[in-house]
Design a protein that fits this description.
Chain lengths: ~150, ~90
């Protein structure tokens, strides 16, 4: 993976696509609402087909823990939940804002992504975190995700 | 019923992987990783680009398989995910 790939903007491309932003917000909030109401949410095909959690498994529950102010429990469930909630907040804000604001925010986000590569590094970090949990604490990880 | 549930989930996974490969090809490695981390993103992106990428049939099959899996699991309790979970002894 080259430096250019890691520093390629992702969040800003999502922010600029209003239809995609609205769809992501709608589905994410529906998922959070369903899980909060103890109803079946989006089932992870990877988990159900292989029996192993995918890198994003546990994110909804961790986000709900965060929303309830249970930071420790949220970090234990999924350490990347705070970043997910920040990204979702930015996407939601942009989905609901006028286009001129969105362009300004997307430009700032793109500059930050190109300068720091933060989105790429977070995504790679998430994959490393998932592999580490699978390799070193698989039993506990699977039990926690399956509830 | 456990076998049916497993077959349905495998179908879901295969459809997901097909759309994920399209996502990798169209948007690059990082979007592909994002799609792998959050299959829901792959699902949304797949439906938004279904006509352009000519994957409408796959998306319809994927959606139907997900609905069928949810119904089968709700009716019969799904299959037991014991893989990788250590057996606890008293």
């Amino acid at each position: 993976m080259t430096r250019a790939t890691v520093f390629r903007p992702i969040l800003s491309t999502i922010l600029r696509d209003r239809k995609l932003s609205i769809a992501i917000c709608a589905v994410a909030f529906l998922q959070l609402l369903l899980v909060f109401a103890r109803l079946p949410g989006w089932p992870c095909p990877f988990l159900h087909a292989s029996g192993l959690p995918c890198p994003g498994c546990g994110m909804t529950r961790a986000s709900l823990f965060l929303a309830h102010g249970q930071l420790k429990q949220a970090i234990i469930t999924h350490a990347f939940a705070p970043f997910f909630l920040i990204a979702l907040s930015i996407i939601t804000f942009c989905a609901a804002s006028p286009r001129t604001y969105v362009a300004s925010i997307a430009n700032k986000a793109e500059a930050l992504e190109r300068y720091t590569g933060i989105t790429g590094l977070l995504l790679i970090g998430l994959i490393v975190y998932w592999l580490a949990r699978l390799l070193f604490m698989q039993g506990a990880f699977v039990r926690m995700i399956q509830g | 019923m456990q076998i049916i549930g497993l077959i349905l989930w495998l179908g879901c996974l295969i459809c997901g992987i097909i759309v994920l490969i399209k996502l990798f090809q169209e948007k690059g490695i990082l979007h592909g990783i994002l799609g792998f981390i959050c299959m829901l993103y792959t699902f949304i992106w797949g439906w938004m680009n279904a006509t352009r990428l000519n994957i409408k049939n796959i998306m319809v099959i994927w959606t139907l398989l997900i609905l069928a899996s949810i119904i089968v699991n709700a009716m019969f309790g799904g299959f037991n995910y014991s893989f990788g979970t250590p057996v606890t002894t008293p």
